[in-house]
Design goal:
Layout (H helix, E strand, L loop, with lengths): L2 H20 L25 H7 L2 H8 L18 E5 L5 E4 L3 E2 L7 E2 L7 E6 L6 E6 L5 E6 L9 E4 L4 E5 L12
Antiparallel strand pairs: 1-2, 1-9, 3-4, 4-8, 5-6, 6-7, 7-8
Length: 180
């Protein structure tokens, strides 16, 4: 490939990303899932500095620096026992085990979150827009949602394993974290 074609391709991609930011309209069905903390689940009163002290460095990087763990590195990818997947920061239940499936991507994947527990936003870090989702209580980054999942939703909520904790069925959920 010559430099002219490479530059033209980069300019087109940059222009598409800029246009996507400016154009109104729905780019992904997941953006309609809402996701603001409310009276039932008020926001957590913990600063980024406090989260950095509370959480191990790898979890902090993913949850509050919007990092991504290596594919295949999470033991949660292969967990299919009955239970609940909770935010690793504030402990809000985000996913039910019956909505988990093996996507073959190397990350825990779900067909849907528990209603009202995640918020979404557009992410342009890879130039083309993707829909990122996060915990509504603490704002912790969980992953991205794609339209290539199985029925019933056709969605793949692709999650960082380090952003979650698994609580087996029959075990009490931890109390929601409210302060440092």
């Amino acid at each position: 490939m010559n430099r002219r074609k490479l530059l033209t391709g980069l300019l087109c991609a940059t222009g598409a990303a800029a246009a996507a930011r400016l154009l109104p309209g729905r780019l992904h069905a997941a953006e309609e899932t809402g996701g603001k903390a409310d009276d039932e689940f008020p926001p957590v009163n913990i600063t980024r500095e406090q989260w950095q002290e509370i959480l191990p460095a790898d979890r902090y990087r993913i949850l509050f620096r919007e990092g991504t763990e290596a594919a295949g590195s999470s033991p949660l990818d292969k967990v299919y026992d009955p239970g609940t997947y909770i935010c690793a920061a504030c402990f809000l239940p985000l996913f039910a085990s019956e909505d988990k499936f093996d996507s073959g991507t190397g990350w825990p994947s779900f067909t849907q979150p528990i209603e009202g527990r995640v918020g979404t936003k557009l992410d342009f870090r890879l130039i083309l827009p993707r829909t990122e989702y996060h915990c509504i209580r603490c704002g912790g980054h969980q992953g991205h949602v794609f339209d290539d999942g199985p029925p019933p939703t056709g969605q793949r909520w692709c999650n960082n394993g380090l952003a979650l904790r698994f609580v087996p069925e029959g075990e009490a959920l931890p109390e929601l974290r409210t302060s440092a």
